[in-house]
Amino acid sequence: MPIRVGVIGARYAALVHIPALTSEGFTVQAICTRTAQSAQETARRFGIPNALMDYRALIARDDVDAVLVASPPALHAEMALAVLESGKHLLCEKPFTVTLEEARALRDAAAARPRVTAMVGHEFRFAPGRAYVGELVREGYLGSLHMALVRLINGGRFAWVGRAYNGDTDNAEEGGGLLWSQGSHYLDALMAWFGPIASVSAYTHVHLGQRTGPDGAPVQASADDAFACTFSFAAGGWASVVMSQAAALGDGGRIELYGSAGTLVTPQDANTPNPPAKGRVLGARVGEKALAELPVPERYAPFADERDMRMLPTRLLLREFARGIATGTSPSPNLEDAYQLERVLVAARESAATGRTVTLAHGG
What residues are paired with 238 via a beta bridge? Predict the structure, then answer.
């Protein structure tokens, strides 16, 4: 019997989540958004039988087994907690929450319900290039990590200058900002590969914060459009992560991993912050003369989906979600992973605000 899903939010969900759910054999039973027009239009577009404005009514439905929370980040905690308390399975989009207290409450609520599957939407763990890097790291290709260099540089925020102020994306306290949005994806990958982060030193900046308020007056966004962080890992090694969406003609993204036994690199297109669906991995062992292409095994890209570069990793994440429901488990990335990542993000903002390096106690 198909897993019946209720979806909260229609912005990103309509682009990727709902088509991916349908392709993976889930049944989207209900859609809930903040406006009746949006809910009804999304329901008509995808043939969803129920369009709602009250997320509590969606969660309470007897014909919903699992709920995808794809609302703005500031709404995640309240909605996700209601899903868990109902005993239904949860897939919560990232960024997870906007405060550490909210993240801890959700982590604890999930832990208290071990048979309820609860995962977070870090789909890029399943991007073929990143997934293969994870395999190579686990097999010892790098040896011991020395350093990881991560960069994502583009000019995407120039198009935002002067547009209408949107608290969901322009207010740092509501989960806006490059650190929370894209930084969280890259940090999730680093932590999956190299384990817990022990310390954080960070700098954030708003270069292109000019927005327009509802009365036409200028409004300043608080959400960062550039940041630089240095992290140390509890198991050894360190990472430098530099990102900007205020860099005209920036040349895109790249992850470079350097260890005692080798080097791994994943290059990325300049026109998107996301890893490509057909990712490349370059590598070399100590003593070799140059990096060479390491073909990504087909098992990491078991099908092609040209609709959107995010579709393949999202569908692979959904397969893990379905596996979790079938086995009564919460596969990674789960809410414990999300909580540990939130600790790092909060520490980065604290470091940026105080100018001090923040040390993280193991576990938390």
Answer: 147, 232
